[in-house]
């Protein structure tokens, strides 16, 4: 669509400047701080020794020990760096961080000094594993994907920036969660596809198809949620969210549906670019194909994709709720109770709304791609 490389570069710079202006305008200057944690500092520490240990193996869960450890730790960072403290580490089924000499852990430090023990064990030090996985992911993506892989990394980083520095601050400042999610969808979709395919008809049709598909998923989730009397108020985190909203302008009720929009974006983007690329390739190979032939080809390809894509979404939501499903199965609830539970109804709406968005993206993208190619002639 835009073949001039210099013009593409200038346009990209202008769009990035606009994005950073939007980012600056919406970003929260003073982040909300959870009151109960304002006097705690979480830092890395090293276990020097275990001076006393009274542990018994759990009778139900293998390799789980319950009891108490008395340990000595050295703070490796923070205001008390270098300090050595004697800590009592209590282990239970819910909070269980069994340590040994030389291990690095995360501890919470009471900065007020009012507690009997100013330092307590918080969690294992897991950051190196996470960083290593990210490095492996980026390395494989670059090695196998080449330039496309590098562009995919840039697109992913841009998406994360949008979510962390735009979407979340907008919600806390009181903007509509649903409209905030749609804005993030538009920005991330545009940047991801432009990075991968440039300013082409294929890119434009994939962007429009994705935006329409995700929007329909959000609308369906919103309508189904209202009919079923579902909202963020039915989720487990509602008490904490209400606490935050009492000190901010956050609109709690729409967060559930904003999450559904964001969750369905990946699958809808995938199917949008797949249909657009397929029709573009067919048109390139045989420019004589009619508008109707291109559309039907896109639909036939889409029919093969929607089954696996719907499975992808349903399995993603199922995997994220596997603990809940095990509990429901174990309790043996009657169907009248089971299918009217808040948590199960939310999972059903999330999964099926995303699948409907995926299905609708196929004809929408096929129509847009063939229409834009026809106009380009």
From TrEMBL:
<keyword id="KW-0812">Transmembrane</keyword>
<feature type="transmembrane region" description="Helical">
    <location>
        <begin position="152"/>
        <end position="172"/>
    </location>
</feature>
<feature type="transmembrane region" description="Helical">
    <location>
        <begin position="203"/>
        <end position="224"/>
    </location>
</feature>
<dbReference type="InterPro" id="IPR012507">
    <property type="entry name" value="YibE_F"/>
</dbReference>
<feature type="transmembrane region" description="Helical">
    <location>
        <begin position="7"/>
        <end position="26"/>
    </location>
</feature>
<keyword id="KW-1133">Transmembrane helix</keyword>
<feature type="transmembrane region" description="Helical">
    <location>
        <begin position="124"/>
        <end position="145"/>
    </location>
</feature>
<feature type="transmembrane region" description="Helical">
    <location>
        <begin position="255"/>
        <end position="279"/>
    </location>
</feature>
<dbReference type="Pfam" id="PF07907">
    <property type="entry name" value="YibE_F"/>
</dbReference>
<feature type="transmembrane region" description="Helical">
    <location>
        <begin position="178"/>
        <end position="196"/>
    </location>
</feature>
<feature type="transmembrane region" description="Helical">
    <location>
        <begin position="313"/>
        <end position="331"/>
    </location>
</feature>
<protein>
    <submittedName>
        <fullName>YibE/F family protein</fullName>
    </submittedName>
</protein>
<feature type="transmembrane region" description="Helical">
    <location>
        <begin position="351"/>
        <end position="373"/>
    </location>
</feature>
<keyword id="KW-0472">Membrane</keyword>
């Amino acid at each position: 669509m835009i073949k001039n490389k210099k013009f593409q570069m200038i346009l990209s710079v202008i769009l990035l400047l606009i994005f950073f202006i939007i980012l600056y305008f919406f970003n929260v200057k003073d982040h909300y701080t959870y009151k109960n944690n304002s006097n705690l500092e979480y830092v890395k520490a090293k276990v020097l020794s275990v001076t006393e240990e009274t542990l018994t193996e759990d009778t139900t869960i293998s390799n789980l020990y319950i009891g108490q450890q008395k340990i000595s730790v050295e703070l490796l960072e923070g205001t008390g760096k270098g300090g050595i403290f004697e800590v009592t580490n209590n282990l239970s089924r819910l909070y269980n961080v069994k340590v040994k000499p030389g291990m690095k852990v995360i501890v919470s430090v009471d900065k007020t000094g009012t507690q009997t023990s100013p330092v307590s064990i918080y969690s294992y030090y897991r950051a190196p594993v996470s960083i290593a996985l990210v490095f492996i992911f980026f390395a494989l993506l670059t090695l196998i994907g080449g330039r496309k892989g590098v562009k995919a990394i840039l697109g992913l980083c841009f998406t994360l920036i949008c979510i962390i520095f735009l979407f979340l601050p907008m919600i806390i400042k009181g903007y509509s969660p649903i409209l905030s999610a749609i804005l993030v969808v538009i920005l991330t979709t545009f940047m991801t596809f432009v990075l991968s395919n440039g300013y082409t008809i294929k890119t434009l049709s994939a962007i429009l198809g994705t935006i329409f598909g995700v929007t329909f998923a959000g609308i369906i989730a919103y309508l189904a949620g209202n009919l079923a009397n579902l909202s963020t108020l039915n989720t487990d985190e509602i008490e904490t969210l209400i606490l935050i909203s009492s000190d901010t302008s956050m609109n709690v009720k729409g967060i559930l549906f904003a999450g559904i929009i964001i969750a369905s974006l990946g699958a809808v983007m995938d199917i949008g670019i797949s249909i657009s690329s397929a029709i573009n390739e067919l048109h390139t190979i045989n420019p004589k194909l009619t508008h109707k032939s291109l559309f039907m080809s896109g639909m036939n390809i889409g029919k093969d994709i929607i089954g696996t894509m719907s499975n992808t979404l349903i399995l993603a939501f199922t995997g994220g709720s596997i603990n809940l499903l095990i509990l429901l199965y174990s309790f043996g609830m009657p169907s009248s109770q089971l299918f009217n539970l808040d948590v199960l109804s939310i999972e059903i709406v999330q999964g099926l709304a995303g699948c409907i968005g995926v299905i609708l993206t196929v004809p929408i993208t096929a129509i847009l791609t063939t229409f834009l190619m026809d106009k380009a002639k």
